[in-house]
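Subject: mismatched residue count in predicted assembly?

I count 543 residues in my input, but I want to confirm that the predicted structure covers every chain. Input:
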Amino acid sequence: MLELDRVGKVYGNGVRALDGVSLSVGPGEIVAVVGGSGCGKSTLLRAISGLDTPSQGRVVLDGVAINAPHEKIGIIFQEPRLLPWLTVAGNVGFGLEDRPRAERERRVAEALARVGLSDKAAMWPRELSGGQAQRVAIARALVPRPQVLLLDEPFSALDAFTRADLQDHLLDLWADARPTLVLVTHDVDEAVVLADRVMVMCPRPGRIFDEIAADLPRPRDRQSAAFDFAKRRVLAALDRSLDRKKRVDETMVTANAGAALWW
Amino acid sequence: MSLVQTGVTVEPAVEQSQRRSALSRFAAPALGLLLPLGLALSWELAVRFGLSDGRLVPPPSVIYATFKELAATGELQRHTLATLLRVAAGFGFGVAAGTLLGAITGYSAFIFRLLDPSLQALRAIPSIAWVPLFILWFGIFEASKVTLIAVGVFFPVYLGVMGAVASVDRKIVEVGRAFRLTGTQMVRRILLPAVLPSYVVALRSGLGLGWMFVVAAEFMGASEGLGFLLVDGQQLGKPAQIVAAIVAFALIGKITDWMIVAASAPFLRWEDRFGRTQEN
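Triage response: the counts match. Full output below for your records.
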């Protein structure tokens, strides 16, 4: 059980990136966090990962407070962040340095087979395509068998085909050991494809605005009416979270005023 | 139909690229040799046909003869060894100090602010300006020469290492943190491999300066060394000996530089470089 208890984060420059975020995620649950830019969703993920420590509140995993990176928590970044001086196999086995060689090699081979890159084991990261590199990053994060896997806009740099492909692939991998997934994304489709629950955040300060259940049966059909309905609900919540209607009115008002002045 | 088409178009393309690579393997270096060999040959012929006496600018055959003579008496080996030992010692000290100081100033912003201004001020001094002081401090024998070479090697290595350590990608360091690496693991598994390419460049420019400063050091008074051969050739009016010593410098400089490149190449195969695309 991953629990966030009134987590807040104030940066050195006084910006309140997060304020009072409470959330609990059950084992094996997939939660997507969406929100406009600057709503603190990446800050939230970094607080859970232990890469940053919250200014207020705490992150607790199975009764243990998380203040630094933890072995049960893996993270996948927006970029693959592979180490260019290690081969694909070396990158996948990066978190297994302390294991005996035979075990390491076996688990790396398994993971590479699982992401369909067995034939690329001896290659350098520079020789991979963007989608392949991100698959290696996923394998690297999964090989230590984390209980919680955090994903920070993991597919946003990929083209639409590769992205849909990797989303399905991620679900497939998730089904192996069913870790808890917390996924930050700005892609509503992605959130609804993957998540059981979608948290909508709003900015200044970053906090949870709404929670939308997306408990459609899996595998999910991206064309179905139920999928579309869930997507609309998330989009509507996003609009409300950004107060977008009001803002549109404001721009119209200022535009009119400008037009009036021009006359 | 498309299959047949690709079969037809691919084959000549492959063949062509193979022919081109075979051509470039031999022709490209040969092209670079054309100018120096042509000049040497025409000078040789000009002297042979009496267009010049070749006294101040000796033709290649005379330089070669001088080489053979120096080698036969063992002079060449003795002087080369003396120079090599000086460069090796100076390079060793300079690299050790430059690496150590470069690493800690690159790593710690506090030490950077503390040390870097002084080191940059010292760097602004032309290193040859130290010569009189070094002679007073360390005498006219090996110590002052090695010190001068070490000073010359130090600065490029220091700058290269400091810049490389300070500019290691924060995102890659974060991967290390996410995998809970300890301080020494972070250095061994992330920082060292990340700075290696710049380090090799720093070593190469340091070595280049080392060869430059060994000549300056040997000019200030030496009884042996390739620099001594230069001075000796000037004082006794033997231009062929001077040119022979210069050629020896060029050869050894190139060979030692190549040794650094060759020794580091196995560790740098991963590099994603501009020049690499043609090799694969």
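Confidence is low (pLDDT under 50) at residues 247-263 of chain A. Marking this ticket as 'not a bug'.
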